[in-house]
Structures are given as structure tokens and as C-alpha cells.
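I have been asked to look over a protein record a colleague put together. This is what I was given:
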Amino acid sequence: MSKRRLSALLAAVAVATAVPVLTTATEASAASCSSYPSWQAGRSYVTGDIVRYTDGKAYIAEHDNPGYDPIISTWFWEPYACDNGPTNPSGGFVVSETQFNQMFPNRNSFYTYSGLKAALSAYPGFATTGSDTVKKQEAAAFLANVNHETGGLVHVVEQNTANYPHYCDWSQWYGCPAGQAAYYGRGPIQLSWNFNYKAAGDALGIDLLGNPWLVQNDAAVAWKTALWYWNTQNGPGTMTPHNAMVNGAGFGQTIRSINGSLECDGRNPAQVQSRVDAYQRFVGILGTSAGGNLYC
């Protein structure tokens, strides 16, 4: 975790944005769900598996589980709109698995596409807002920044272990229940500090303050923390990265919101260029334009 996480994430100390109400798949017909296998109690499922329940509706596994009941264990399952995927009624996630693999040819096996898909339900507006071009631009912008933060989705945890004890702010009333050195950077946007684990966990309905290791052990949780930052945090910027993309501010403002205090306004042009290069490559893979205002 670089020093910029301190400046970028201190701005989010008091933020714990509520998760939007999830759109369920109650309207999905039994016929449209018939292609999925029937759920079986006691059968092991992995993140991303889709099953047809006894009511004829489909559910997608958000976490590996040994066959828990989808309508009881909502931590492990959520409704799935059979025709269109879990979050986008206009046609599913704008990045296919083939495109995802093309973007990240050397990715760590932890960062699964199915984990990303399972995480999308936490923020239904992500990559589903605006025109098809805007949707693709937002997905590309998110993944380009993630690419830079993790070295191409290679690093799951912060590499400098000497930093680990530094991310505990004992002045917070809840302290560091998982231990002094438990809140190091993890996941696609390298979530760090006890107060950020607390805020992200509160927003997502997951006890990340007490169990920060979930972010490095559960792919869906890891992706959700990155989407939490993207959709709810301004960091050192003036807007969330999500709002920057859907309101036309441009890719440069996403950089500012993630690491502007150390990279923008000429401070580190090489790092900015690295992010821009990835973004331009990714919009090319998705078959759309990059738009304007690429730099910060």
C-alpha cells in the first residue's frame, strides 16, 4: 500500500453509504430459467453457479457453499434474472468473460470473472447507467484503475508487509478488533485501514472490521469492496469515480478520486499515463471510444 492510500482513504473515514436496494428476479419466468440445473440440498456450489429453485426461479451463488437453501441463506445466494443476468435488465454485464480474460491475461486465479459478476448486485447502477457507450466506458475505467492498482490483477494483498501495522487507527471507537496488523491493503483497489474496512463492511452488510481476511479469501467480497469505493467514495477528488463516468467528467476524474493527491496536476505523469493506456486498451476491447478528459 503506497502512501497515497492514506490521503485517498482518510477522506472516507466517516463514510458508510447504504447499499442500494437490490433488484430481484421475481419477474423471471420458470420457462426462462429452465436451462439451469435444479438446486439440490447438500450439493456443493461455487461462486457464480446458477440454479433453478423449487419455485421455478433462478438464484446465483455469491459465495461457495455446501448446498444451503437459496431463499434462506441470502449471504450465499441471490435472485438471478434468467434472461439478462443479476443486475442489468438491458442485457447483462457489458464485459464478457472472454473480454475480461483478454484484459487480464496474467491475472491471479483469485480474481475470477464469476466473482466479479456475483459482486455486481451490490451496486446495480454500475456499468448499467446511461448509453451503451457510457456503460462500456465506466466498466473499462473501473477495470483500468483496478489493473493499475494490482499490477494487472496479480496482487491480492499489499506487497510491502512492513506497512501492515500502520493501518490501525486506535482513535476510532471500535479500534482494531482483528489485530494491529490486520488491515493492510487487499483486493482490486487495495482496501486498507480499519475505518475503511468498517465503512465498507457496514455498507455491504459484511463484518469486514472483525474479519478483514474475507477480502483476500472470497473473490465476490473482494470485488464488492472495490465497487464500494468506486460507487461511494470521493477520495481526494470531488466526485465518485462512478459519477465521473456517468456524468461526463471523464476518466481523468476517476484517477483524481483514487490517487489524485499523488498523481494529478503533474505530480506523477507516468502513473497517470499508465492508467490512461490501460483505459484506452480496454475501451478498444469493448469496441467503444474513450471519450474526453482522460488526464487529471
